[in-house]
Amino acid sequence: MTHPRPFRAVLLAAGASLALAGCDRKAAPPAPPPQAVGVITLRASPVELTTDLPGRTEAVEIAQVRPQVNGVIQKRLFVEGSDVTAGQQLYQIDPSAYQATYDSAHAQLLRAQAARVTAQARLDRYGPLARAHAVSRQDYDDALATAREADADIALARATMSGAAVNLAYTRVLSPISGRIGRSLMTVGALATVNQTSNLSVVTRLDPIYVDVNLPATRLLELRRELKQGRLSRAGDDAATVSLTLEDGSSYETQGRLEFSEVNVDETTATVVVRAVFPNPEHLLLPGMYVHAELQEGVDPTALRVPQVAVTRTPHGDPIVMVVGADKKVSIRPVTTGPAVGTDWIVTAGLKPGEQVVVSGLQKIHPGDTVNPSEVAQTDAPQGQKAG
User: For labelling, which of 18, 87, 205, 295 has a CA lying 20 to 30 Å from the CA of 273?
Assistant: First the structure.
């Protein structure tokens, strides 16, 4: 049967439309452009490593002034809160009883010396007579023994007199060291005794002064290992310097130097006591003050700095970064971080100079993605940049 020409045209048009629709369903959508990310290219730079730790000031010398003889305090011979020198008299204890004992011991010495003269004269006379057999040998031996006893009496009297002189001198209570004396804890008229538990006063040497801080034992091991491996080098004459920040936030003008570190680790805190000594001519630092000490440990000449925003962590807490390879693809890289330098971490393992680390756009990329990296300016770390 022959169809009319208009109907055949409609069928051809419908077929063409269906063919075009099928072609549209088979065409793939255009691929999205690579994600733009900001990266930095790692460069090695020298960084001075420091550790900021809380600490306490300690006096270099503290002398507790206590009586060494019994007696009533007659005088106080210093101004409370003033500076005193070693050997300066601070108190006067009633010396009358000790003066009498000294005088008695002196008289005994004079008596023993007089008896020694008589005994020696007799011995001198008996010597020739004994050789001439004019006196018996027994008489000569008795004279010799009497002379020896006189010598012993003199030695005993001198010892007694020396002891009395020491006790008499102790009635003048002297400062054992130079420093600043505190308040008087006993007043004039009070009875001082040798075995009393309280002090008369306390003298403290304030210049220089110690600052003791507790350094974690693990950090001390890290420092020694890094120095042994050559990763750290001593910063010349300043290698052992320490800076102080006072409790009110101000900086102490003068730097100190490390004195020593304790040989034992505190079992309860796992720390080692590190002591620094500071000049204190103005007596601004007082014992017991809370301070922050900044220990200058050394210089890492090839430190790699990575912005802290580029470092994320796995669910287990391990630090990772996103690295852009030569093919512009992103990969995850585990790293080991060290101390912080401003807003950066020092990366001690996992990266090397020349690699590109993603610092912006991290939320929009995944491992294996192809990205369009652009360099982000990074603040250079000049010589002397500190890490804490």
Answer: 205
